[in-house]
Amino acid sequence: MAVFSSGLFSRRTQDLRAGLRHAFALRSDQPAFTTEDLALLERIADAIVTRRMAVPATLFLESMGPMNFLGSQALHFLAPLVECVFSSSELAQIARLLERRDSLQRLTALIEAKAAASKGAPAR
C-alpha cells in the first residue's frame, strides 16, 4: 500500500474543496432573463389573471417550486404529445425556463402584480 506524501494529500484535499465549493450554492450562474423569456412569462401571467385563476396558480407555483426542474424534464419527455398544442420553440423555451430556480418566483410576482392591478380596474 502506497504511503501518502504530504504534497499529494494536500493537493487532493484542495481538489476536493474546489469541487465541493459550489455544491450547495443557492445563487445560479445563469444569465439574466432574455426579452423573449420575459415576454413569455408576461403572456402566461396575463392568461392566468384573465381567467381569474391568480390565487390557485400562485398557491400551485409556491407549493411546487422546489420541483420545477423535474417539471422541465417531464416536459422534455412529453414533448411529442405536448407539441400538438404548443410550438416546439415555445415548448423548449418553457422547459428552459423551468430549469431555472428563479423563473417561478418571477412568474408568481408577475401574477400577483397583474392581479392587484386588475382589482383596481373597473369591472367589465
Describe the protein.
The protein has 124 residues and is mainly alpha-helical. It has one domain. It has seven helices and no strands. The longest helix is centred in the last third of the chain and has 18 residues. The chain is elongated, with a radius of gyration of 21 Å.
Please sum up the structure shown:
With about 120 residues, this protein is mostly helical. It has helices spanning about 5-20, 35-50, 55-65, 70-75, 80, 90-100, 105-120.
List keywords for this structure.
124 residues; mainly alpha; elongated
| Structural shape | elongated
Radius of gyration: 21 Å
What are the low-pLDDT stretches, counting only 5+ consecutive residues below 50? Answer: none
| Fraction in beta strands | under 5%
- Let me know the largest β-sheet: none
Average pLDDT reading: 82
Structural topology:
Elements: H1 6-20, H2 35-50, H3 54-64, H4 68-77, H5 79-82, H6 88-98, H7 103-120
